[in-house]
Write a structure and sequence with these properties.
A hairpin with a 6-residue loop joins strand 1 and strand 2. Strands 5-4-3-6-8-7-9 form a 7-stranded mixed sheet, with helices on both faces. 46% of the residues lie in helices and 13% in strands. With 336 residues, it is α/β, with parallel strands linked by helices. The mean pLDDT is 81. The protein has 11 helices and 9 strands. It has a single domain, classed as Spore Coat Polysaccharide Biosynthesis Protein SpsA, Chain A (Alpha-Beta Complex), CATH 3.90.550.10.
Length: 336
């Protein structure tokens, strides 16, 4: 009788596991097909509102000619406390550099990813202080994920160079010069005309990834064992999904030329933590050079990465692997 009971429980467990696995597989396939046609970038452009005059400002698009030298895109979700310090540091650097070099024009685009705190108020305070030509706010309305927030900011920016950076200020903003110099050096090698490099830089696809790989040994020594285990496992999955070549895909400090951003962010489909991995995959597909550069980085309290984030990463990379490798997700090379 006891043997029969255990046999029945085992059969039931196997049936439940099989049904769960089958259901998960079906869900993955359905979601992969749902994202097959990436028309999100064709949606209506957001409207920038000038809080000083209450007038609406026309929104640019990534296929429009550049109007600024550099755009900084800052995704923000519930960053009321950390955003002011990071923005103060960023604006001080940008103003100081612009004061020394009048050709250095800039904009900061804060993308509020459906925050429930005072992030929107903080962001608009900076628009009032620095004017809408220099600081702009995009409101997503509801939380859609860091990847989607950055995609939105990239598609509606005006820079020849576009930098994504986190709202917590974990990477020093002046490190953008490291990425900028390397991009300019590669662009110079690729330049086909004798024109001013600062004028043609926007037309040469190049990507520069800020990297914390040089800090890995110290991080391994100070982190809990399970976080190191998860990190190593994540690196393995990234290697399988996007291939080798980039040691740190997840640093939130990355720079793109306008031509590179145009190719990448009109194709990207992942909306949350793994969009960085998709950027690596798409860059390799297009043959866009990826430069990895060590940056100054410090861990800021208030990280939003959790176990749920890890599960979401695995989910997104499964979608990406199926979508691209099976050919469900098509890649567009639209130029205008």
């Amino acid at each position: 009788m006891e043997t029969w009971r255990w046999s029945t429980m085992l059969e039931f467990t196997l049936i439940v596991a099989l049904m769960f696995g089958l259901g998960l597989a079906v869900a993955i396939v359905i979601e992969t097909f749902r994202r097959r046609f990436n028309h999100n970038h064709l949606e209506a452009h957001p409207i920038f509102e000038d809080p000083n005059s209450l007038k609406q400002v026309d929104c640019p698009y990534i296929f429009d000619p550049a109007e600024k030298y550099i755009s900084l895109i800052v995704p923000a979700y519930n960053e009321e406390l950390r955003l002011p310090g990071a923005l103060d540091e960023t604006m001080n650097y940008l103003q100081e550099r612009a004061g020394k070099d009048h050709s250095f024009t800039y904009e900061v685009i804060i993308v509020d990813d459906g925050s429930k705190d005072g992030t929107k108020r903080v962001a608009f305070d900076f628009v009032r202080k620095y004017k809408v030509d220099n600081v702009r706010v995009v409101l997503l309305g509801k939380n859609q994920g860091k990847g989607e927030a950055i995609r939105k900011g990239m598609l509606h920016s005006r820079g020849k160079l576009l930098l994504m950076l986190d709202a917590d200020g974990a990477t020093k903003v002046d490190d953008l010069e490291k990425l900028e110099k390397q991009i300019l050096a590669v662009a110079k090698l690729k330049q086909q005309s004798a024109g001013d490099l600062s004028e043609v830089i926007q037309d040469i696809p190049i990507v520069a990834f800020g990297s914390r790989a040089h800090l890995e040994k110290k991080a391994l020594a100070t982190r809990k064992w399970y976080r190191n285990f998860l990190m190593k496992g994540f690196h393995l999955v990234v290697l399988l999904a996007a291939g080798p070549g980039v040691r740190d895909t997840q640093c939130g400090f990355k720079m793109f030329t306008r031509a590179a951003a145009r190719k990448l962010f009109t194709n990207i489909r992942l909306k949350r933590w793994c969009f960085d991995v998709e950027l690596v995959y798409l860059s390799k597909y297009f043959g866009i050079p990826i430069i990895e550069i060590s940056v100054t980085w410090s861990e800021i309290p208030g990280s939003k990465v959790s176990m749920l984030s890890i599960l979401n990463m695995l989910w997104e990379m499964t979608l990406m692997s199926l979508g691209y490798r099976v050919g469900i997700w098509k890649i567009s090379d639209r130029q205008s």
